[in-house]
Amino acid sequence: MKEFDFGIVGLGVMGRNLLLNMADHKFSVAGLDLDPEKAASLEKEASEEHTIKGTTSAEEFCGLIRKPRAIMLLVPAGKPVDSAIASLLPYLEEGDVLVDGGNSYFPDTNRRVDELAEKGIHFFGMGISGGEKGARFGPSMMPGGNAEAYERLRPIFEAVAAKVNDEPCVTYLGKGSAGNYVKMVHNGIEYAIMQLIAEVYDLLKRGYGVEDAKIQQLFEKWNNSELASFLVEITAGILKKEDEVTGKGILLNYISDAAKAKGTGKWTSQNAMDIQAPIPAINAAVEMRDISKYKEERVQASKSLKWTDVSETSEEEIFAELTDAFYFAMINIYAQGLAQLTIASKEYDYGLNLEEVAKIWRGGCIIRAACLEDFRQAYSKSPELPNLLLDETLGKSLEEKQAAARKVVKTFIDKGIPASVFTSTVSYFDSYRSEILPTNLIQAQRDFFGAHKYERTDKEGVFHTEWN
Ligand SMILES: NC(=O)C1=CN([C@@H]2O[C@H](COP(=O)(O)OP(=O)(O)OC[C@H]3O[C@@H](n4cnc5c(N)ncnc54)[C@H](OP(=O)(O)O)[C@@H]3O)[C@@H](O)[C@H]2O)C=CC1
Ligand SMILES: O=C(CO)[C@H](O)[C@H](O)COP(=O)(O)O
């Protein structure tokens, strides 16, 4: 009987496409799904060069794969991951490797690593980014787990990953849940950049009444500049997709404004609070999705809470400023997410190499962008860089472009167009570059009402004052 190189559990959007990607690269792959239709249709999709087999039996599936087995789970995060593991366990053996390729919550990964280690099974948490197309033709992959066991996965992962300058967008990131953590923060950055783009669209469309085609052209132009990125590129594509139902105008104008979320953005914010990593732009993006859900209240408030436009900035002026302002905000968002990774790496002892993270985010993933190469170079020069804002080259660019960002933020406010992410990037920049913050007053207030004590700037020790 044929022994298969690899196994994938969950033949949905990601699993099916990654399996076909592996088969394209001459690996033989077995697939397991609870749905007989998905298991059967997999083989129908295979080309003559593919060696693949689908099944609904965990026993048959585990029997097909060469020992020690390498198996990836691509099922929804949470309980489905635990039940998929439970269904395989009776047929797994010491030395087998299980990789969770989904967006699992990182503490769940730590628990699974420990539980499976007791049985001699290596468990990996590996974030995968790139969506359906990425999985099929080259994703960015973020594996964390046992370094030695990774060597067995490396050839197959490097073969199927996206390539930038012939370098694969996958690398071993660290032990335990390091891979899931990096993917979680990737998604936090993804939320913030998406919201930033949405704010630009809102300012132009609602604030200035710019027609869709002209906004589309702006994003298309940006995608051929230093702002080139997957999210800008797809926005230009979305803005020209005609509505087939009505045949009138673009589809975007018919899509509801209550946005959904699966949890990774929220987890990024929740954990940032736990480890005291300031990421205001990501927090703002998570909250904007929350505010979007309160449609009825927003409709009611729009009728009672009025504002008259006091903006003096013309459409021409704002178009001229937006490119620099967007660059400024975008760099501040990446800086926050990457700084969170630096803090988390110490907190959880992941041993992350930020240059490698920037490198594998250059291609395949949703937040791929031209600026990732600049970040890679910044970390290559200074591996211990605590924040990208301290890199000389990036710092200089931000210094030059801040005037545009300030002007654009003022215009948002004057026009009454919400810009939680845009404004928070300017405040973050200003907080980070402030030698002195007003938090001495917070210290005094805490001591006043709670005798919490404070430190002085002119001598060592802790002090308390009777303020009354
Ligand atoms: N879609 C995307 O763009 C991306 C998704 N991800 C992550 O990848 C993971 C998978 O997502 P996606 O492929 O979209 O999900 P889908 O829902 O498309 O596919 C999941 C598949 O897993 C099957 N399944 C569930 N439980 C089991 C089980 N115990 N044994 C065998 N098969 C099982 C499901 O079968 P059934 O439907 O019959 O229940 C389904 O076919 C998620 O964690 C997601 O967050 C990551 C990056 C991008
Ligand atoms: O991981 C992804 C992209 O990188 C998935 O598409 C994820 O579902 C996106 O998050 P959300 O559904 O919360 O918008």
TrEMBL record:
InterPro entries: 6-PGluconate_DH-like_C_sf, 6PGD_dom2, 6PGDH_C, 6PGDH_Gnd/GntZ, 6PGDH_NADP-bd, NAD(P)-bd_dom_sf, Pgluconate_DH. This is 6-phosphogluconate dehydrogenase, decarboxylating. Keywords: Gluconate utilization, NADP, Oxidoreductase, Pentose shunt. GO terms for biological process: D-gluconate metabolic process; pentose-phosphate shunt. The active site is at residues 183, 190. One of its GO terms (molecular function) is NADP binding. Its EC number is 1.1.1.44. NCBIfam families: gnd, PRK09287.1. Catalyzes the oxidative decarboxylation of 6-phosphogluconate to ribulose 5-phosphate and CO(2), with concomitant reduction of NADP to NADPH. It holds the Pfam family NAD_binding_2. Pathway: Carbohydrate degradation; pentose phosphate pathway; D-ribulose 5-phosphate from D-glucose 6-phosphate (oxidative stage): step 3/3. Residues 179-468 form the 6-phosphogluconate dehydrogenase C-terminal domain. Belongs to the 6-phosphogluconate dehydrogenase family. It comes from the Bacteria. Homodimer. It catalyses: 6-phospho-D-gluconate + NADP(+) = D-ribulose 5-phosphate + CO2 + NADPH.
